[in-house]
Amino acid sequence: MRACWLVSLACLSLACAQRSDPPILAPTLDWITAFSEAQRAVEDRKFNDADAVLADFIKLRRGTPEAREAAFWRAVYLLDPRNRASNPREAALYLDEYLADPPPPANISQARALRGMASTVDSLDGAVRSAQEHATKEVEEPGKPAPATGRETELEKEIEKLKEQLEKANAELDRIKKRLTAPRPPG
After folding, report:
1. Burial class (CB in 10 A: 0-12, 13-18, 19+), 25
2. Where are the domains of the chain?
3. 170 phi/psi in degrees, rounded to 5
4. Is 145 helix (H, G, I), strand (E, B) or coil?
5. I want to staple 92 with a disulfide (CB 3.0 to 4.6 A). Which of 22, 118, 124, 185 is the partner?
6. Cβ neighbours for 59, distance < 8 A, ≥ 6 positions apart
7. Which residue, 118, 122, 124, is CA-closest to 159?
8. pLDDT in tens for each of the 187 residues of the chain?
């Protein structure tokens, strides 16, 4: 009987020692408070307030898992199409920060998807701005002959195509944000 007990204890010890997943820690009260405050601000479309709450939290709790999550949520809010100060380039920096350190973060798949989308949105924004600036220069230069109808049509089509791609990327960001903010089942 004693040998059976020792074998069981050894197996249990071995099983526990081989666990590779990092332990999941319960969030701290100050993180729950800060995150709830940021969520309320976002629901009221006060994105700057939400960002300030999360930035302050990161300063106070730098190096903690909660500060890492705060960086993730700062990126999500910066990518929200309702945010007038939306900044995909800055969001990408927060996502890089979130993904940089081991262990793998809780929302690694979502962060990677958002990082790719942030790059795409940033590229599309740049292309649309460039096309619009080019079209504006052509119109503003009075000494220059009127642009050829074919070139103008081509630029308009390109702008429309880029706007459609940007709208699709923003819709995908909305979908991911809704999935991330949906309550998770306990367990």
Report:
1. exposed
2. 26-181
3. -65, -40
4. coil
5. 118
6. none
7. 124
8. 443 333 333 333 434 444 444 445 577 899 999 999 999 999 999 999 999 999 999 999 998 999 999 999 999 999 999 999 999 999 999 999 999 988 888 889 999 999 999 999 888 888 888 888 877 776 666 556 555 677 888 888 889 998 898 888 888 888 888 888 777 776 5
* Per-residue H/E/C for 11-73: HHHHHHHCCCCCCCCCCCHHHHHHHHHHHHHHHCCCHHHHHHHHHHHHHHHCCCHHHHHHHHH
Six token digits for residue 30? 């100050």
Q: 26-181: which CATH number, 1.25.40, 1.10.10, 1.10.1510, 1.10.287?
A: 1.25.40
Assess contact for 160 and 168: CB atoms under 8 A. Answer: no
Cβ–Cβ under 8 Å, residues 91 and 75: yes
Total-model pTM: 0.62
Contacts of 128 by beta carbon, 8 Å cutoff, 6+ apart = 159, 162, 163, 166
The separation between CA 181 and the C-alpha centre of its own chain, rounded to angstroms, equals 12
